[in-house]
Backbone:
């Protein structure tokens, strides 16, 4: 079956992973941090702002794949601080006003230091 | 393609995520904690009891989706305490007597405090 | 729909999970640690060596499923030490010379102690 690599300038990119791969009727989106697509800098200081940047990146990648946030079926969040849970949910809800995806979550840090982690992986169709 | 939201009163529910979404021939189930479907309270004190409640919730959601535990293809566990690994496996095996799903695991906490985390995500078909 | 259990002697096995399940046009591979398929011992001391063993196990499982590393669509890594991130990426790139899969990552430990965790889950088609 086909396996389509997705690329957009409107989301962060990396030599070690693809932004998304389309396969089997799904779009597998790479985990997104709160990074600016061009500068690579962390966007925002509050968990709400950082969540917004994460999901904005996911949204841009989905658009490039011909999908959208309204079609997300499952998403994973990773938080650096458990105390950010309520703030993340507050912003999360703004991105899924009609039906929310299934969700899995975790609380821990990874890779880059110094920001409220709100890494996410999305599966859409 | 179709994207079906699954809902059952027999598992915990939340405004910020769906219990499951059915799409692309799969059921994407939200991570389940050891919570009682009605009271929302943590069920059990041992990792075996809490694992049972997590998987009971997953099972209820799968039933509502027209699937079942015997069709799970992949599942993720999250443990708050590494020392609970053996106890979790003990109960886990009871739920998958014939063929076990592929599994991924992690050890860390999230969101709620005070219980042995045994969050799980399941993919079934 | 069909649900095929994958088994190979060329990767670690466990009574509590399947090495992989094939379903819905995808192969769901269990998380792999840096374990030798036969002895079960940790292979290597550096993150590069341990990453190699993890991905070698994934590769063996994919082969048994009639797939291959060149078809991986999404993968999750789990690191015990954030400082191993660069070293893991170094080895990671060797396994995906053409197109890299979408990727999600985390930094924490699980189950077994004493090795640089580089657990991975892969979805291929």
Residues:
């Amino acid at each position: 079956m086909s396996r389509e690599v997705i690329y957009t300038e409107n989301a962060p990119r990396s030599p070690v992973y693809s932004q998304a791969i389309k396969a089997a009727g799904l779009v597998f989106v790479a985990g997104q941090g709160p990074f600016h697509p061009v500068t690579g800098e962390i966007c925002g200081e509050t968990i709400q702002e950082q969540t917004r940047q994460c999901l904005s990146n996911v949204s841009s990648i989905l658009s490039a794949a011909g999908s959208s946030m309204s079609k997300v079926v499952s998403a994973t969040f990773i938080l650096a601080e458990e105390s950010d849970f309520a703030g993340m949910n507050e912003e999360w809800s703004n991105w899924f006003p009609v039906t929310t995806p299934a969700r899995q979550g975790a609380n821990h840090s990874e890779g880059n230091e110094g920001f409220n982690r709100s890494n996410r992986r999305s599966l859409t169709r």
About this structure: Residues 5 and 18 of chain B are 7 Å apart (CA to CA). Residues 47-64 of chain B form the longest helix (18 residues). The radius of gyration of chain B is 14 Å. The domain at 4-124 of chain B is CATH 3.30.1330.40 (60s Ribosomal Protein L30; Chain: A;).
